[in-house]
Each structure stands twice: as C-alpha cells, then as structure tokens.
Amino acid sequence: MSRYQQAIVIGGSVAGLTAARMLTDHFERVTVIERDRLQDNPDYRKGVPQTRHAHLLLLRGMHNLDKMFPGLSQELADAGGVIVNVGQELIAYMRGNWLPSFTSDLNPIACSRPLLEQTIYRRLTANPQVNFIEEVEVCGLLTDEARSHATGISYRSRQAGGELQTLMADLVVDASGRTSNTPKWLEGLGYAPPAETTVNSFPGYATRIYERPANFNEHWKAAAIFPVAPHNTRGVVILPLEGNRWHVTLMGIQKDYPPTDEEGFMAFLRDLPTDKIYHILKEARPLSSIIGYRKAENRLYHYDRLPRYLERFVVLGDAVYALNPVYGQGMTVATMGSQTLADCLQAQKGNGDAAALTGLARRFQKALGKVIAGPWQMATGEDMRWPETVGGEGLDLPTRLVQKYMDKYMEAMAFNAELTAQFFTVQQMMAGPETILHPKKMWAVFTTLRQARRQAQQQSNTAGSWQQTMMPAGGGD
Predict the structure, then answer these.
(1) Minimal CA–CA distance to 120: which of 33, 12, 31?
(2) pLDDT tens digits, residue range 424-473?
C-alpha cells in the first residue's frame, strides 16, 4: 500500500498517541506536537489536570490498545498495573445496597494515567516513523493560498523568545483536548466554527493517594459508591495503583463539591450513604495532598454538522467531545476515535498523493459523530436527571421511559447477580446498552423486584407476629 508522506498530531494524550499509532499505517512519518515534556516524565502533566483523579481504562479500551500495541496490557501489569476482576474484586454500593458479586471474565487493568501514557509513549518512540516535538505551542494552521486545505502548522517553543517555526504535512490532526483552538482557527480562515452543546450537572472531584494499609485483609481491590439522582449527590471511587497504593477520588454533583482540606475531606467521606470507606481510610496513610477539580461538564463541538470543511484537517478526542469523567468513558472513546480515523483513511483508497485525502475531513467527522452519540447520550442523559443541570435540549418521552426502567433495573441489581453482571458488561463497553433493554432482562427485572418485595412483606409479617406474641395478653396492671 502506498503511504502519504507526513501527518501531524497536535497533543500527546491518549487520543493523540493512539491517533499517531493508527496514522503510521498510512503515513511515512508522523510528528506529535506536545506542549508538555513527555520524555522520561512519570508525573502528572500540567496540561492535563484531570489526570490526577482516578482513571480506569474500560475493558473495551484495553482491548483496543492491545490491538494497536500488541502485549500492552501485559506490559502494564508487569509495570505494576493491577488486574481487577469486576465480578469478584470490585465492591459497589448503589441505591442503599451493596451489589452482589458474580462470576465474570471482565478483567480491566487499573494503573495511573502517567503509567499508561508513558507506556504508549515508549512504544511510539521505538517506532522510527514517529517523531515528537515537545514543550512547544501550536500557533495556527497553515493552508494553501485558497484556504481550501491545511498544509501544516506554525509553532514556537514555550520558552521565552522562541522563534516561530513551521512544519508542513499532508494531514493535520487536532487532539489537543478541552483547550483546543480549532474553533477560532477555523473562524479566522473564513470557515464557520462548530456549534457547541454543553450539559453541566456541576460535578466536582477531590483526590488523594493513600498507601494500601498493611493490615487490610478484605477481598476487594476496588470500590465505588455511586451518586444517585436526584438527591444523593455524593460518591467515591477507590482504584488500586502501581506501588501498592490506592487512588481515592471523592465525587460531588450539583455543586456539592468535595473539600480539599483534611477535615472537610474526611467529613465528606463519613457522610456518604455508607461509612464503610471512611472507617478504612481514616486508618490509612496518605501519600499526597488533596487535589480538587471542577471543570468536568459535558461539552460537544458539532464538527459532524459543519457546512464546509477545511480539507486535510480533522479533530478528535476531547477537542471534539468532553464527557463527565464520573462515567469513565473518555480514554476508551478516544481509542475508538483513533480506530475510526484509520477506518476512514482506509476507505479513502488513497495512492499516497495528498490530493486523495480530499473528503476525509467530512467522512471522518461524521463517522466520529456516530461513535460519540452513544456515550454522549448516556453521560448527558444521566446528568440531566439532576434538577439543577443546565444545558441540553431536555429529555424526550422515550428517554424518560428508558430512565424509569433503568431505575427499576438498578433497584433489582441488589437482588440479582445476573442483572448486575450485565450492567457491568455494558459499563465496560463490552456490550451495547440495548442488551439491558432485551425483553428477557425486562422480565428478570420485574420478577426480581416482585420476589424481593414479597420476601420483605413476609419478613415484616413475621416480625409483626413475633411482636404480638411478646405483648401482654391483657391491658391491666
């Protein structure tokens, strides 16, 4: 297969790194432009502040990465990443109950995002097709004289006095994240910028890393207490980290922001619907300060609806969509976007001539829009259940009916391990949401709830009978 000459990827996070990998199948050279220093940097990067908070790459995302980088999951495990069996080693509290354990082949790997990104980065630096230019700022797009297609970028060092430089390419990919400058770049070139939709339930996070207690002897490796609309605004997630550590992130919705001071952090933990996690962590040794984060609303730029496209330029990752991190979809959807880019390049049937890339921008942005649609609907649909959420277009009747059913489904999960297993299979994106709506699952939900209520009533009647037998027969002295 003939390859194009040069591609540029703006941004070195998961979306940018995976896009770079997929582009190596179609381009002789791929250059990643990054504002931070990636080389030998094991720490959390300033350019990605949300990465300090708990991340779990969903199982579908891990499978995608193993296809792109064979053996990557084993490499992460060898570096200290922790395999967590969702059915047996995750405890989850929802709607007043701890969910039952179940037999599962869902085995995602929990690790810090720096470990994940560094492992992918090292794989790419070992590829002679890939080059990194780090600690630079992209200043704008270069185009042909007619401004019909991108021809490269201009950039400068982030150090004081850095000279403006240019880099030419057959294709430019913006994977620069939430702070992407693409809307203003397009407008400056005479193109209509994308429409924007924001749905904000006002989530906030506070995170601290702990040493796993030496005397901890419970069976679980990860734990979650989920916020539940419309009233239970608080939750927590504990994920294992390499180095025998715990990543603990408190979650608050509707501006119930977790505090970042010691006393407030522990009080928030204590006031969760169950205090189990509080009693464990109050004896654990903290290894970090408490870090807060509040810019976590859902935001979507509608690049799939542009009236006209700048050719040889595409946008993916958080530069297009940013999802509330509480649902854990971001990194996995990023890998799906990179795979979609590769599929669209394959569909172009190019011969290595850059002119053959005409039409790719429209093809890709529309295909990416379809990939995003499901995760976006899930995240925003859940967030719009909170009474003070702003943005969006409201929920239509079918969506409201599905949500009422899901309320019943999640209530039934406490009494039915099979329903719990299916929920987490969907949550790990290994099956579509439609599997939860299958008639057999609906029947299981309603029969489970009917049986649970019958048992509760029998227990209540038994307790009432026992109390009557203990009462005096007469009413006198």
Answers:
(1) 12
(2) 999 999 999 999 999 999 999 999 999 999 998 888 777 665 555 544 44
> Does 308 lie in the same domain as 289?
no
Contact 391, 200 (CB under 8 A): yes
Which residue from 359, 303, 369, 293 is spatially nearest to 333, judged by alpha carbons? 369
Q: What is the CATH number of the domain that holds 230?
A: 3.30.70
Using alpha carbons, select from 411, 371, 77, 95 the residue that is nearest to residue 231.
95
Q: How many domains does the chain have?
A: 3
Domain's final residue, options 293, 316, 332: 293
For the record, the structure tokens of 290 come out as: 């408490």
Q: Give residue for tokens 């408190």.
A: 250
3-class SS at 475?
coil
- 253, 202 in Cβ contact below 8 A? yes
pTM of the model: 0.92
Q: Do 266 and 192 form a contact (C-beta atoms < 8 A)?
A: no
pLDDT tens-digit map of 163-203: 899 999 999 999 999 999 999 999 999 999 999 999 999 99
Q: Is residue 249 part of a domain?
A: yes
Same domain, 139 and 256: no
